Amino acid sequence: MSSAAFAPLAGCALLGALNLASLFIAGLRLRRRVRLPPSSRQPVSIVCPLCGVEPFIEATLASAFALEHPEYELLFCVENPDDPVIPTVRRFMEGHPATPARLLIGEDRVSGNPKLNNCVKGWASAQHEWIVLVDSNVLMPPDYLEQLLSRWRPATGLVCSTPLGTRAEGFWATVECAILNSHQARWQYAGEGLGLGFAQGKSMLWRRSFLEAHGGIRALGAEVAEDAAATKLVRRAGRRVHLVNSPFEQPIGRRRATQVWQRQLRWARLRRITFPLFYAPEPMTGLPLPLLLCILGCLALGVNPLLAAMALAIIWYGSEAVFCRSKCWPLTWMMVVAFPVRDAMMLGVWLRGWTTGSTVWRGNALPLDAKPALSARSR
Fold this sequence. Notes:
The protein is α/β, with parallel strands linked by helices. 48% of the residues lie in helices and 16% in strands. It contains 13 helices and 11 strands.
């Protein structure tokens, strides 16, 4: 075999092996949920920032009030006193008087991150040592707190959950589920399995004494994204970020192509500025690059690359489908069709992510070329 054929085919084989290895490691790391003994079910404060009425807000709020935990409190944080979500929150609080819950309104501008600013008052008001910061679009299972607490170890600094996209309506919502589930969640679990755990801002379980000893909640404003700041803080402290045994659901609903693109572009730009060394090789996690190498190798050998390319795609996406099925994650024929669309979109997102020094969140421009100042205006 000539070197012109060997190099691209070897590269294709290496990337294919890396893909299969990530599925294998993530598959081993994802486990069934465990039960904690009653003595380990510590009291927990749940801080939930809210902004506007989201499509599944009724379901996610209901799940927060239905947790099977002996002692917990809910702290709902809203920045604007005119926010339309406030009546909904108050209705749920009135309907569940047995669950300790408070609605906190106002903003503490401690960073350039509006979500973090919104959470500060909740952190300050929390009554318990264990505190969860959770996004309002997370669908909490009844054992939500138990699953977070069960992953805490002596060397743990933070326990998180990646979002598991569910309840997709339409093709582009399915593409977003394909991005969240068997791509992002899979690689995060594979990384954690190798000791490279990254924080995920959807659900973050903190021990108050640990975070306070390392700058408190304001220290999470050291980066434009609080989960990036959390990852670096935990690693500097010599601790690890752990993931729950099985991710928690995020209902997706309906999406347009532009919504998926803009959402992924925002996250890509944040990854690029906070973890550039991990962002740079991201194209190696999708099929386009190994597919190109396969075609180049076949052309160098003088053979038709079509059959080889088709076989590679079947193996690549077939193994991903098997992974989803084995974990009982959403899998339909539309999802399988979404896999290659996802990879093509994510390659475009990756390229676009290098070209700007800003991003947009809820209509606010975020400069990414410099560290956010603690006194900066909320994004």
